[in-house]
Amino acid sequence: MAAVFLFLPTYSPDLNPIEHYWFKIKNEIRKVTAQFKDISIAVEHVMKFI
User: Fold this and answer.
1) pLDDT tens for residues 41-50?
2) Quick check: 42 and 28 in contact, CB under 8 A?
3) Rg, the chain, Cα only
4) What pLDDT, in 10s, does the model give residues 14-28?
5) Collapsed DSSP state (helix, strand, coil) of residue 44
6) Which of 20, 32, 34 is nearest to 48 (CA)?
7) Report field, pTM of the whole predicted structure over 0.70
8) Contact between 33 and 39 (Cβ < 8 Å)
């Protein structure tokens, strides 16, 4: 039995739509983190608007 090599394209976040949403979510969390004492509260706040 011979091994078959598959050459896959390099990973490109531009081609993966979910990466754009994660980018937006992370940026929003960074913006509001200073307003809250705990990061989990900041995440909850941002997730309400998604």
Assistant:
1) 888 888 887 7
2) no
3) 18
4) 778 888 888 988 998
5) helix
6) 32
7) no
8) yes
